[in-house]
Specification:
Structural class: alpha/beta
Largest sheet: 5 strands, mixed
Helix content: 40-55%
Radius of gyration: 18 Å
Number of helices: 10
Strand content: 5-15%
CATH architecture of the domain at 1-42 and 179-241: 3-Layer(aba) Sandwich
Strand order of the largest sheet: 2-1-6-7-8
Order of helices and strands: EHEEHHEHHHHHEEEHHEE
Length: about 240
């Protein structure tokens, strides 16, 4: 089973979804299919640049005031901690572009471990309050994913991977992906949102490929998300751009 995942590195529900997917596969036990995961970029805030802006300030501007921003962050933090993820929105997180991080993920997919790099970047931002546009943070994440520090610095000091990441962002737009995390199973079935592990496990069980699927080839993508209410900004499952 191929699972393509669109996510952004500053999306808390993408980190939650990453761990819920792993838990869902564990719940399937012997019924779990062999899985090949591919990570794809998405920008929740395409207007962000390398200038740090306090995250709470950015959320207040986006979601209608400091009170609503505090409510969203508190609810998200509580959900993450219930999942065992040490999100702490009092660590001074900042809004910056995630394009360098996505370029690093692109490199890791080819020369290292993209999942490990993503995990390191999620942890750096959400648990440690690190700036994801800081080359030192990116180098450390690259090392966590098996890349040499010099290789990561060379990437960041060049245009390598920029065109490829921009092309991938364009494909996401063309596919109609407007919220993350979005999982696409075998190129055919879309699951939007970080649904609970039990719901994800049931969806994966239903979507496990059969011999007939293999012989017929991939058909058009269709929504296979478990039933859930999703807030148009950041709801119980994911975030919209």
């Amino acid at each position: 089973m191929r699972i393509d995942i669109w996510s952004d590195l500053v999306c808390p529900w993408c980190w939650i979804g990453k761990h819920r997917l792993a838990r869902a596969l564990e719940l399937l036990g012997d019924d779990a299919p062999a899985v090949e995961v591919h990570w794809h970029p998405f920008l929740l805030d395409p207007g962000a640049d390398a200038t740090p802006v306090a995250l709470r300030e950015a959320y207040a501007a986006k979601f209608g005031g400091a009170g609503r921003a505090a409510e969203i962050l508190a609810q998200t933090q509580a959900t993450a901690r219930a999942e065992g993820l040490p999100i702490d929105f009092d660590r001074g997180q900042v809004r910056v572009t995630t394009l360098p991080g996505h370029r690093l993920m692109w490199l890791a997919a080819r020369e290292g471990d993209a999942a490990a790099v993503g995990e390191a970047l999620f942890r750096a931002h959400f648990a440690e309050g690190r700036n994801l546009a800081d080359p030192k943070v990116l180098v450390a994440a690259g090392i966590a994913g098996g890349l040499d520090a010099s290789r990561v610095r060379a990437l960041l000091e060049s245009d390598e991977g920029k065109a490829e990441v921009q092309a991938a962002l364009g494909r996401a737009q063309a596919m109609g992906i407007r919220a993350v995390p979005t999982f696409v199973i075998d190129g055919r079935h879309g699951i939007q949102g970080a649904h609970p592990p039990e719901a994800l496990a049931e969806a994966l069980r239903r979507l496990a490929p059969s011999p007939a699927d293999a012989s017929n080839g991939a058909g058009p993508a269709r929504d296979a998300s478990p039933d859930a209410d999703v807030d148009p900004a950041c709801g119980p499952d994911g975030c919209d751009a």
